[in-house]
Write a structure and sequence with these properties.
By secondary structure, the chain is mainly alpha-helical. It has seven helices and no strands. The longest helix has 20 residues.
Length: 121
C-alpha cells in the first residue's frame, strides 16, 4: 500500500508488480487500492503506467467498468506516446468485449465510448 505512494519509482514498480501477483489469487486484497493504482496511470514513468494498466484491466468488473473505461479514455487523450495510446485503446476494447460483453449492462453507453474513441487523436 505505502509502496504506491513512495517517491522511489523502483519501490512503486515493485509494489505494482506484487499487486499483480496478488490479484490473480486474492483480488479482494487488491480492490481497496483501486484509486491508488488508477493514479499510477498518471505517473511519468512509462513502466509504472504500463504495470498499473495491466493491474487496472485485471480489476475490471460489472460495477467498476464505466469508471475504469472513463479513466482509460482520459489517458488516451492525455498521452503523447503513440504506442501507449494504442495499448490503451486495445485494452478499452478488450475489457469491454471480454467474455461476450459480460460486464456491459448498457450497450448505448458502450457505443458512446466507441464513438468517443474515434474522435480522439
Amino acid at each position: 500500500n505505502r509502496m504506491l505512494d513512495d517517491s522511489d519509482q523502483n519501490l512503486k514498480y515493485l509494489g505494482l508488480l506484487a499487486l499483480t501477483k496478488i490479484l490473480k489469487c486474492h483480488p479482494k486484497y487488491v480492490a481497496p487500492l483501486k484509486e491508488k493504482i488508477i493514479k499510477c496511470l498518471d505517473d511519468k514513468d512509462e513502466s509504472i503506467r504500463r504495470r498499473a494498466l495491466d493491474l487496472v484491466v485485471g480489476m475490471v468488473n460489472r460495477k467498476n467498468l464505466p469508471e475504469i473505461v472513463k479513466k482509460l479514455v482520459e489517458q488516451v487523450d492525455l498521452s503523447e506516446n503513440m504506442a501507449f495510446k494504442e495499448e490503451l485503446l486495445l485494452k478499452i476494447i478488450n475489457i469491454c468485449n471480454q467474455n461476450n460483453y459480460q460486464f456491459i449492462t448498457n450497450f448505448e453507453w458502450y457505443i458512446t465510448v466507441l464513438v468517443e474513441l474515434t474522435k480522439l487523436e
